[in-house]
Amino acid sequence: MSDLEKDALSTVEAYHNAWTSGDVDRAMTYVSADVTCSAPDENVTTKGDWHEYLASFVPMLTGAPEHTRMTDRGRVALWYFPQTEVTTTTLASELFTVRDGKIVEIRLAFDRLGYIPGDQQPS
Asked: Source organism's superkingdom (predicted)?
């Protein structure tokens, strides 16, 4: 693994460990002020939006075991299971681009229906 990949992975790990342990403010210290965000919620596009998005989800989080990760130069992909009272098996994936020790792009993908209780699922 190259130094660039090690640095990117270290940044993403620190970010991920911070928010999954409930410290969204610390997680945001690893995110660039001009980060580009892409999430299932199309209204989440800026660092402030991302902070709010994570802060609203973290209280529901009961765990986040990692499935796997990959690095490619300054990009890191994480797959993990963000667990809540509703689900322990819904997979999430995030692709990060890191430059100069800061996350400059976040692309999040997951099945939103996985977080809706079974009796409230659309038919």
From this structure: Bacteria
pTM: predicted TM-score of the whole model, two decimal places: 0.87
What whole-number distance in Å separates Cα of residue 98 and Cα of residue 24? 18
pLDDT tens-digit readout, 54-68: 999 999 999 999 999
Domain 3-112: CATH class, spelled out:
alpha beta
Alpha-carbon span 73 to 4, nearest angstrom: 6
- 22 contacts: CB under 8 Å, gap ≥ 6: 58, 61
CA distance 58 to 17: 12
> Does residue 19 sit in helix, strand or coil?
helix
Extents of the domains making up the chain: 3-112
